[in-house]
Write a structure and sequence with these properties.
By secondary structure, this protein is mainly alpha-helical. It is built from 10 helices and 3 strands; from the N terminus they run H-H-E-H-H-E-E-H-H-H-H-H-H. A hairpin with a 2-residue loop joins strand 2 and strand 3. The chain is extended and about 100 Å long.
Length: 264
């Protein structure tokens, strides 16, 4: 659906964009609005399309817009998107859908009661003589453990646990920049199920990256979003960097006269 407003968390936004010029800040906001109004909350990875929609010249695009895309957006599957923006778009869409469904159910129930009251009930009938409301029919589910028929909840909403929920929770604990959780979880499960990447490798890679960010004292705006980190399979980069660090330190030991590798 088309959402007529966009949420702006001013504190987070200012923390991430304090280094931008007025021109860069304006380009960033315009690109966020363009993504929000485009289906899928993303735009084609086509500079000409973006230039036309943002109403900028080629010079302004390569001078201002392209650096903003490289810093704040992810490019994948021929689309450009912002992980935090997509997560907010999905959350608001889901909230609107739940409210709409609840309203539709309420209207249908009122219409049925009103129709039955006019068509079937005699003028002198008492309310106590109306037929009792039928019990809701329970649909079979794969798992329905400890389900109490007297519990006050929608009997249709019984979800099965995702086998990768626990692995993702372990991954999310060590993420240094916790933003776009829904999109990050989707990317995590895709890598585990489709690309057949063991979740332990992804988790260990993120631990190394979090340690690197902490040791560097890196500014928050320079920390990768978890979804982009997963899509780019950056755990491979961190593994290669760790191996290179080990080799460099070992060479320094040998140059210092210590020929015993076990001493390292």
């Amino acid at each position: 659906m088309s959402i007529p407003y966009i949420p702006l968390y001013v504190t987070d936004y200012e923390a991430d964009t304090a280094h931008l010029t007025i021109e860069e800040d304006g380009a960033y906001l315009r690109l966020l609005r363009l993504c929000w109004r485009t289906p899928g909350c993303s735009v084609p990875s086509d500079p000409r399309w973006i230039m036309r929609k943002m109403r900028v010249s080629a010079d302004d695009y390569y001078r201002v817009v392209e650096p903003i895309i490289e810093e704040f957006f992810t490019v994948g599957m021929d689309r450009v998107f912002n992980a935090r923006l997509q997560a907010e778009h999905e959350r608001i869409n889901e909230t609107h859908k739940k409210r709409s469904d609840a309203g539709a159910r309420g209207n249908e129930k009122r219409w049925v009661l009103k129709t039955n009251d006019k068509a079937d009930r005699p003028a002198t009938v008492l309310r106590s003589q109306l037929e009792p409301e039928l019990e809701p029919e329970l649909k079979p589910k794969k798992e329905r453990k400890n389900l109490n028929i007297n519990d006050h909840f929608d009997l249709e909403i019984v979800y099965e646990a995702n086998p990768y929920d626990q692995a993702f929770d372990e991954f999310w604990v060590v993420v240094p920049k916790k933003a776009g959780k829904v999109a990050a979880k989707r990317a995590f499960i895709a890598k585990v199920t489709k690309a057949k990447i063991p979740p332990e490798i992804i988790i260990e890679g993120m631990k190394r990256y979090a340690k690197l960010v902490k040791n560097d004292g890196r500014d928050r705006s320079m920390i990768k979003f978890p979804q982009g980190w997963i899509n780019d399979e950056r755990w491979n980069d961190e593994a290669e960097a760790s191996q290179q660090d080990f080799s460099n330190k070992l060479k320094e030991k040998l140059r210092a006269g210590n020929s015993n590798p076990d001493a390292y």
